[in-house]
Amino acid sequence: MIERPLTDWLPLTMKEVEKRGWDEVDIVLVSGDAYVDHPAFGTAVIGRIMESEGFRVAIIAQPNWKDDLRDFRKFGKPKYFFGVTAGCMDSMVNHYTANKRLRSNDSYTPGGEAGFRPDYATIVYTKILKELFPDVPVLLGGIEASLRRVTHYDYWQDKLMPSILVDAGADMLVYGMGEQPLREILKLARQGVPFSSMRNINQVAFLHDGDTELQEYNNWSTVELASHEVCLEDKIKYAANFKIVEVESNKWQANRITQQVGNQILVINPPFKTMEEAEIDKSFDLPYTRMPHPKYKKRGPIPAYDMIKFSVNMHRGCFGGCSFCTISAHQGKFIASRSETSVLKEVEEITKHPEFKGYISDLGGPSANMYKMKGKDEAICARCQSPSCIHPVICSNLDTSHKPMTELYRKVDANPAIKKAFVGSGVRYDLLVDDFNKNNQDGNHDEYMEQLVTRHVSGRLKVAPEHTSDDTLRVMRKPSFKYFKLFKQKYDKIQEKYGLKQPLIPYFISSHPGCEEQDMANLAAETKDLGFQLEQVQDFTPTPMTVAEVIYYSGVHPYTLKPVKTAKTREEKKTQNNYFFWYKPEYKNWIRDRLTKLNRPDLLERLLGSAKKENTGKYTGNYNGRKKATKKF
């Protein structure tokens, strides 16, 4: 294998800077992740965009924040600014389980080792930079900054926190997918415009001195939220704020948002319109090495990289708008799809990887089967304020044709170096059920499903019904469980037709707002009737900028302001989770006692039958040979 020159990567050390013949660095990026030069890693994308615009960029990856801070000093003072991100995940989600237990590993660190980034990494990094280089602007980006850009509930401290700009002391924040605002910022920075004058760029947030008048720009109208201080006193006002933020984040012709925070005004400018094909291609077609920086070789593999190194992301965004999910909050509800040419070019690049054995692990996206989907009449989309295009019913203006995906899958299959190209991302199954999706007019959904099941399933197919209770599913913004049953029938018929044995792996969440104990018992019974034994399941975690987080904290739904019951104590959450394991001997007596107290002999009969009390014992089964399934949000 031929070693690539170190200069193929963006520099991580001063030696690498000197190898490039640079006497200074224009921009320094500070990240909580190890540096993987791949389009699935935000720091690489941002760094490569800056490089493509002619800037000299260096990266400080996972700096030590506990010592003499030499990592932060190593490149000296950049000419223009520092860019700070916690990484590909919110640092608190990265560090802690739903029960607030510290995780023992970190998928974005060599060797999977934990402990290489601080809690609230964006805040910690920025404060250090401001102390060391007080006159250098700091620009925040990434999912942690994006989802904490306004007053938000922090589950780990169990309190409301102001915009991350307040606690970090940064100069500006880019929210969402950052390519479009970043190019504007770079253009103005090169012209010598200070950050304090960059006030008319879409998709940025900043703090304005409350004693001076806020100027009008670009004919934007302004919507004012309840102040941070009011939110601290009134949970209902906080919930009402969320509805405004979510609606404005998903509009093409959005309003500017302001919020008083102490003696400052938080200003959130409207987002850019979703990227067109040529724009998103530009991001993916940059000269990535597609590999981790060579400095990590002796420290072991980076799990997140190993998972995606042979995968292709075909699109961004998700129009599902699920209450517990942050994808639409960060990537937007409108789909930005790459061109066939760009996707096939990346597939060809993957085939040249020295470790490639002929298998693409994923042709997908946030939801695998939304590629090329958009409004039939975009003028209707431009006026739309709905947070979801498919809840409570599917929008009649949504083009849900699966034909572009089917054709692209076949073109990937036609590459002689590809043995198999799998779809590893979760499939949005409701789009493939005609009773739910009335927009399937030419039968292309069935053609796609047959192509998917026969050619692109790697042993099992992941889908996410999330619950069986219609009341809970309405809070989740998910369709009725009856559509999952219809999908399973369709899936099983194709399996039978081709003699395949590829189990469906459904994901479910316990303790979600709107879910009560009896709902979980019923979920266990429903899934048992369908032949499932659920091994590893997701306990709900309230993450910032989600409907479910707002309900968890405030007790009301932000759109109706009506109460929604939520399991909050550890005991309540464990009680709900226990029902998943009805098949384990050590849970049976517990389930029998709970359902007797709840006066639900019907559920007791369905779950355990009418057998006498069994002795508890240690479970030694093997989950019927199925692999364990986990899900992260």
The CATH architecture of the domain at 6-205 is 3-Layer(aba) Sandwich
Characterize the overall form: globular
Instruction: Tell me the helix content.
Output: 25-40%
Helix- and strand-based class? alpha/beta
- What percent of residues are in strands? 5-15%
Question: How many helical stretches?
Answer: 24
Gyration radius from CA atoms, angstroms: 25 Å
The overall strand count is 24
Distance between the termini: 37 Å
Q: State mean pLDDT (0 to 100 scale).
A: 94
Low-pLDDT runs: 611-633
Describe the main β-sheet briefly: 9 strands, mixed
Q: Given this structure, which CATH class of the domain at 6-205 is correct?
A: Alpha Beta
CATH topology of the domain at 6-205: Rossmann fold
Q: How are strands sequenced across the largest beta sheet? A: 3-1-4-5-8-9-12-11-10
Domain Radical SAM core: 304-584
Organism: Larkinella rosea
Cofactor: [4Fe-4S] cluster
Binding site for [4Fe-4S] cluster: 318, 322, 325
